[in-house]
Amino acid sequence: MKKDINAEIISVGSELLLGQIADTNAQWISQNLAHMGINVYFHHTVGDNYDRLKSVMELADRRSDLVIVTGGLGPTEDDLTREVGADILSQQLEIHPQVLTKVESFFERRGISMTENNRKQALVFKDGKVFPNEEGMAPGMFVDHMQKGWIFLPGVPREMKSIFSKSIIPFLKERYPFKNQIVSRVLKFIGIGESILEERVSDLIRTQTNPTIAPLAGEGEVTLRLTAKAETAEEALSSISNVQEQLMQRIGDYYYGRNDETLEQKVLEMLKSHSYTLASAESLTGGRFIDQLISIQGASDVIAGSIVGYQTKIKENVLHIPDSLIKKHGTVSEQCAREMAEQVQRKMQSAVGISFTGNAGPDASEGKPVGLVYIGLKIGDQDSVVKAYQLNGSREKIRQHTVKKGLEWLFYSLKEMPEK
Fold first, then answer.
1. What family is this (predicted)?
2. Which domain holds residue 338?
């Protein structure tokens, strides 16, 4: 038997291609196969079309050891997975008595007359193995064809997950008795560009085979995915930790978290560790910065509040930015950002005050170019500091990037301060 099993997932349904629903099935199946040490090299999404589905299945049959097909097992005319599967795998379709009884009972209990097309849900491959569907009608199926394994599952996530968890996983572990497991860890970095980061670790990326290192660009940040294969998860994690240590020696200054950890979470944790509260004064960002922080549970311990001073009169009357300052320097200025940070810190009686002002476009404002952003920061008794950024992109992109820059600067500022 082969040392490695290479799998492929085919998701069937025109609704997936139209974007009406997201294909979460392939992601979920891939995660579970990885835990068993089964490689997934291809994901395919194909609509409800006989010829296109046949073409995709033929391709999968040539290159993969295990093919998992989800969707297209319903009762309607455009549910073609069984028919195409029977063609590709040289199988006959037959009615499964127990499944048919279940389908008929479903309609009887509801006092509804069953239409003839619903019998289709009881069709199975004559030489296949049938797995019961406890959450719906169409069962799961397995066919061994030319030493290739084919699994067919309903597309409804609840039904697919039930069959896969209760029947497919035990079946695969018995059929492919490999001890290897595939484990991944995502490392997250902020304040360094993707090209610079990759250049610093390029030799490690080129030479690593197990674990592998894959750079992934994020929104205003960079991530590295480390993936290892070993007999146990503990061994895989140990290999990953060894590579992570090498990476940290080169780019550790920019590291902030891993896997599902977010920059917002890290900022909140650091505020708590310093026993700081934070308040924001937001013009350009319109409250988006503080919203990202308070969306995290426990934010009330450290978030004092926010003032969204979008119009000039609000900056003057609520934040008390001097009229003379605005007339001389404008609202999109270093001076205005500094005053906003200081005023919101004072008014909210918080340890940290942060401010955002700038021009997100689409046109120049106060003679300032689109994308010019100022962020002010005041921590404790320290002098307030303002940073200017020239950002690019759409209005929405500039606003998103501004929030990210604020979180990044706050993260590094707090990181440099001694904890209480």
1. Belongs to the CinA family.
2. 263-415
The helix (run of H) or strand (run of E) holding residue 256 is strand 255-258
Q: For residue 318, what is the domain's CATH number?
A: 3.90.950.20
Give me the amino acid identity at 218.
Answer: G
- What pLDDT digit, counting tens, does each position of 111-149 carry? 888 888 899 999 999 999 999 999 999 999 999 999 899
Beta-carbon contacts of 308 under 8 Å, excluding residues fewer than 6 positions away, are 282, 283, 286, 287, 314
CB 160 within 8 A of CB 69: no
User: Is there a contact between 84 and 59 (Cβ–Cβ < 8 Å)?
Assistant: no
| Lowest mean per-residue pLDDT among 173-177, 261-265, 371-375 | 173-177
Look at the chain and report how many structural domains it folds into. 3
- Assess contact for 109 and 118: CB atoms under 8 A: no
Question: Strand 303-308 to strand 372-379: parallel, antiparallel, or no bridges (unpaired)?
Answer: unpaired
Give a yes or no: residue 59 inside a domain.
Answer: yes
Task: Pick the last residue of a domain from 125, 153, 175.
Answer: 175
Query: What band does 231 get if pLDDT is binned at 50, 70 and 90?
Result: confident
* Residue 354 near residue 278, CB atoms below 8 Å: yes
Residues 206 and 149 placed together within one structural domain of the fold:
no
If we measure between CA atoms, which residue out of 153, 246, 151 comes closest to residue 205?
246
Helix then strand then coil, % of the chain, to nearest 5: 45, 25, 30
Task: Write the CATH number for 214.
Answer: 3.30.70.2860
How large is the average pLDDT for residues 318-338? 96
Q: What is the pLDDT of residues 255-282, one digit of tens each?
A: 999 998 999 999 999 999 999 999 999 9
Q: How far apart are CA 48 and CA 31, in angstroms?
A: 26
Q: Whole-model pTM? A: 0.70
Q: Is the pLDDT of residue 2 over 70?
A: no
